[in-house]
Write the structure tokens for this entry.
Amino acid sequence: MVKMQVKLGQVTLRNPVVLAAGTAGVMGEIGDAIDLSKIGAITTKSITQLPRNGNSPIRMATLANGMLNAIGLANEGIDSFIQNQAPMAATIDTTIIGSVAGDSIDSYVSVASAMDSVDGIDLVEINVSCPNTSDGLEFGGCPKRLTSLLNEIRPALSRCGMLVKLSVAPGDIRPHAQAAIESGADALTLINTIPALAIDVETKTTAISRGVGGASGAVIHPVALRVVSDIYNDVAKDAGIPIIGTGGTMHWKDAAEFILAGATAVGIGTASFVNPALSLKILQGLTSWVKRQGCQSITELVGSVKLP
Ligand SMILES: Cc1cc2nc3c(=O)[nH]c(=O)nc-3n(C[C@H](O)[C@H](O)[C@H](O)COP(=O)(O)O)c2cc1C
């Protein structure tokens, strides 16, 4: 038997497969389709202080090798989440990561501290990387502002570990990752969707109403892999901070690549839209691969790619 458990801060996941924010329902509705007790962790939809309708339709489009979305953080707001969703958390048999978004330091702090009070949520993920709202990158795009934000959120978490989800949109995100770690991040989630455009050539309009949206799925995997490798080698490894490698994992080999590049866990998003059971198939393939590698634990393989 190989050990598939991995640690994010003080929290042990039963395996490294994490369902990514916004792709598994608000609070694990995907549990209607798959057995969540086999999954390492699920992430909630990003929740903001006030309800948000998100962007106008059309908000999603299919790409040749992925999808484009500009949902715009549509969610019910933290009060409704606490009343209607939070009571379910303790009944879901896996680690739950509460995803937090906002447009000001105060709003992030109030949502994060509300999440921290929910029995069954053990980690919060600070989403500072939404490309689909006018202010989604306000904090994630600038290391100084990110530090100010996280320095207020960290003390508001009395129980939960803090994950920080970064975007590649600012370019080189090594300073942003460094700032997150110095501000007390227990893990980094890399990456969110990548700003992208698709055009309907017959109607000569953009495929989604907002124009630019966030690309996800196989098309972004090599970019996500490069970012995980850079951040692991240049920032996170020496600090001992784990990474959830997220972006275009459709097959167990994509997940294995993330582990070799330096990820401790792997986020699955778009694959769940193709088939909700793909995450379990990816876990199976990953487990067999660890066995074939002759390892006792998947952690032995983290960052073990031979880089040139
Ligand atoms: C429809 C959709 C909604 C998403 N909503 C959120 C969200 O609310 N919060 C967040 O942090 N990321 C959100 N994401 C980004 C995913 O969590 C993930 O980072 C991204 O899709 C890349 O992974 P993938 O290629 O496996 O999908 C969303 C992605 C999609 C496709």
